[in-house]
Amino acid sequence: MPKNKPLWLASWVEGYAKLIIVLFVVLIAVTGWFAQYFKIDASAETLLLKNNKLFIQTQVMNSRFSPQEFILVAYKPKDGSLFTQQTFDDIGKLSDEFKQIERVAAVTSILNVPLLSFMQGLDTNVNASDWSWQKQGYTPTQMQKVFSDHPIYTGLLVNEQQTATAIQIVFKDDPELQQIEKKITVLQQKQLTNEFTEQDQVQIETLTKQADPLKAELNTLRQQEIKQIYHITESLESHADIYLGGGQVLAYQLINIIKSDLVIFGSAIGLVICVLLFVIFRALRWVILPVLCCSTSVVLTVGLFGFFDMRTTVISSNFIALQLILTLAIVIHLIVQFRQLAQERPDDTQRQLVKAMVSAKAAPCFYAGVTTSVGFASLIFSNIQPVIAFGWMMIVAMLVSILVSLTLFPALLSLLPIQKGQVQQSSSKFMERLCSGIMANKVLVFIMAALLLIASVVGAARLSVENSFIHYFSESTQVRQELEFIDQQFGGSTPLDVVVNITADQRKQDLVLTADMVQLLQKIQHVMDQYPAMGKTMSVVNFTQLAKTLNQGKPLTEYELTAVYHLLDKALTEQLLGAYFSEDHQQLRISGRVKDSTKDFNRQEFLQQLRSDIEGLGIEREGYSLSNLFVLYQDILQRLFASQVNTLGLVYAVLALVLFAIFRSIKVAIIALIPNIISTLLILGIMGWFGIPLDLMSITIAAIAMGIAVDDTIHFVHHYLQSANEQSANEAVLSTYTSVGFALLFTTVIITAGFGMLGFSDFIPSVTFGLLTGLAMIVALVTDMTLLPALLNKFVGAPKRTNT
Amino acid sequence: MSNRAGLKHWHRIPLWFLFLWLCGCASQSTTEQQQASVASPPPTTIVVNSSHGTDVLEPTVVSYQAPTFNDPLESINRPIFAFNDVVYRYAFIPIAKGYLAVMPEPAQQSASNFFANLREPLNAINHLAQANGSNMGRSVARFLINSTVGLLGLFDPADAWFEIKPSKSTLGDTLQHYGVDYGAYVVLPLLGPTDARNGFSSIFESMANPIHQLTDDPQTLYIQTYGAIHGFAPRAESYEKLSAESEDPYVFFRNMYMQGLLRDKQYAEE
């Protein structure tokens, strides 16, 4: 390992303390200005891979069948009876008010849908809107009857138990944005056929830039609209429960809870950390300085992200928390070192102490930061855009943290007056006992570690991956209950479509659709409906079912179907069937929504089973496609899951190289790697054993655990090797315990306690993140304080001296 | 006098019988030949096998393929169809459109009521022939009520006030009741697609219509012509649109007619 202590840095920091502070003030001002351009993008879209086949396919299908954006408002009367004049009045009032919202294209409710079942027989000259409650004023009893087992509206506008009804608020598309997106889709489609050129890529980028501000505007508008809808529904709270649902509502609630968590838990964590810092170090300066450094790091990082337009997604949303942890860890190491120096050299001036602190700790802190960055850099090779972005963000954040804690912190510290006699070194008896205990039982430690490793690997093999956005909210929350109600009662949340191609031999002259084709579709839809997790499915079949009821229960013939199709008003056909049948492309679409809140739902198995069921009906794999958000989420989850293994392997390899570069010894590198491998695998193992599935938010936990663990390891090994140059192996271990040991212990206690606060959050990913991060810190501490010293003592000893 | 006017048409009947018998024979001989291959109607259930077990569904759209029906008279039917097409296009459809535009909705309804009432005696006779006493009684009651209180059948107080629902029954239904098959597909001049049994029924009933007892020619002819236009008018636009959408309108209308017929046959039996 390099012996040249970074004296130049120490004297530079000590000599130009004021200049450094001024520079940082300027930097904060500049980056603070750029921080306003920092964007948190919680939309589902950011999680999706843009360049893959499934995504493009879904975009193509969406432009072909143009499903509309909508929000569901469920109305559940408190007295239990749904079909009453009161309900009709309320729904009418709500609908009128919703219509006032500017972007609303239509409000569909039980009051204005055409109730063709009231018609005597099939009449193609029908003016559908004539057959609505609004026009005909049906009685509550008639309404109740018509909505019982209605092929189209049951599960869509009225739940099966008839205890609640839903109002569908349909929104207008932004024509300009839609135009741009269509163009992008057309260009992207070329990727599927390998005709994609560099020019196309440039064009896509220009178009995306055009679309960005429009999208941002739309998102703000959506937020306002949802607030407005909540406000409108408030007036009816006395006699009805009102629930909101739909993709946009979910995104709105996600952003809300993330924001409120940031405020509530951000301050709670900050407070706990401050209190603990004060309890441990018993001086105000050891509270204020770390807090100053942490906040400076965060402001600089956020400003840089704003400058480079790096956007935070759900996956990278905890970068602030991580940066706090990593900055704090470095600063605590410095504090512990400083206090130790102050005790050992009572006659030194403050500036001399600072200089000594920097020269002793700059190298390990720098190495620790670099290795952590390398750990996160491995994420760049995951091939998954949001994870790659997270990797880059963490590298930037880490570099900022190193810079701040190694320059600003000592600079500030050097200007403070010396605190004589205040330093009370914590009792080292505990450390001494721990040290001798470990040294005496090395074999036991190795055996335990080996067992733990095996258990972890077995547990990690049991890991599953599952993502339910509704389950992100704690069961006790209002939001969860609302979303779950809509999800369970009104046909599910996450869109899943089956698009069936009509082959040439399935067509017949002059027929729009053959009976065989409709029957095949009916079979597929029936198979889909058999899954308990499947919500409402809609296709052409629902309409033929309605037609059958209108035809006195007799099925239509394929010619009658064709006649009805041609004879109905073109606009009406488009409105009813446009989303389910494309005559030009000869495709039929079954649109479904999966119930996101289904308990113990294995999504991957469901998709596989569904595919095999569909293929079991005699459809070739090329003859149909599954598309839409459900498939895309599942795809990215599976990729993330698969990439865990690859990324972890890569991280271990790269880390081994970096450790070798730092310590210049294969033996030391391998020994330093072992506790890190155990820490990361143990976290995954624990998740596996406890059945906590990885989701979009916890998928990076392994990388995080690694980032934390490697810090501890480097500080420990670095100190040990330095001590071993002058002392015996046993003395070196003891000296490391009593200096670095404390720093590790303090860091772990402070951060674990602080992030443990997240356990009280209503946002489950925060809970998981808080607890797992705490766990990762404890595991890292334990392995670095037991296994690592045992390994170092046993296999490295004192390289420059003969082992005693 | 009116009796004689009615009788004037009866002498034509044997000729029609002969014609239809021929059609029937022609169709029968061919169906019998084909019965050996596949003539049975398609199953009325769909069986689905999946990982959730086997389920049985009811189809919402059905199809009847050749050889469940055939068209032995195609060579005669096609020219008649072409002739009809010209007549429809240049006479019936413009007339029908004008008629619908001029006639207010209540008047149209009354006209429908009038013609429906006029054939109530025929309904009664057919119900009787099918030994359906209660339906016969209803038809008789409807005729009596609607002809008097309903102002010559222009209104339907039997349904509106006494809740006696209409129940149409034709000679075709009676023939079917006694096991007479529908025979071949026939395109009648002016009247359009039908089958041998129903074609015979329509012609026979138009001659046996009680109107002959009430009026003389040419009034009878005027009234019947008006009835025909009234009946055709709502379908005029459909005919125009559908024939525009199909490549071979003859086949389209034939298949639509025959599939509907076979569907009714299959689903009435259940």
Descriptive terms for the model:
heterodimer, A: 804 residues, alpha+beta, 5-stranded antiparallel β-sheet, 4-stranded antiparallel β-sheet, 27 helices, 7% strand, B: 270 residues, mainly alpha, two-stranded antiparallel sheet, 12 helices, disordered N terminus
Write the layout of secondary structure elements.
The complex is a heterodimer of chains A (804) and B (270).
Chain A: H1 7-15, H2 17-34, H3 53-65, E1 70-77, H4 85-99, E2 104-108, H5 133-136, H6 140-146, E3 165-171, H7 175-192, H8 198-234, E4 240-245, H9 247-281, H10 285-308, H11 319-344, H12 350-377, H13 385-415, H14 429-440, H15 442-461, H16 478-489, E5 494-501, H17 515-529, E6 534-538, H18 540-550, E7 556-557, H19 558-567, H20 570-577, E8 581-582, E9 587-594, H21 603-616, E10 624-627, H22 629-663, H23 666-689, H24 701-726, H25 729-756, H26 764-785, H27 787-796
Antiparallel strand pairs in A: 1-3, 1-4, 2-3, 5-9, 5-10, 6-9, 8-9
Helix pairs in contact in A: 1-12, 2-10, 2-13, 3-7, 7-8, 9-10, 9-25, 10-11, 10-13, 11-12, 11-13, 11-24, 11-25, 12-13, 12-22, 12-24, 14-25, 15-23, 15-27, 22-23, 22-24, 23-24, 23-26, 23-27, 24-25, 24-26, 25-26
Chain B: H1 2-7, H2 13-35, E1 46-50, E2 53-57, E3 61-62, H3 74-102, H4 105-118, H5 120-129, H6 133-148, H7 157-160, H8 171-177, E4 185-188, E5 192-195, H9 196-208, H10 211-214, H11 219-245, H12 249-268
Antiparallel strand pairs in B: 1-2, 4-5
Helix pairs in contact in B: 2-9, 3-11, 5-6, 8-9, 11-12
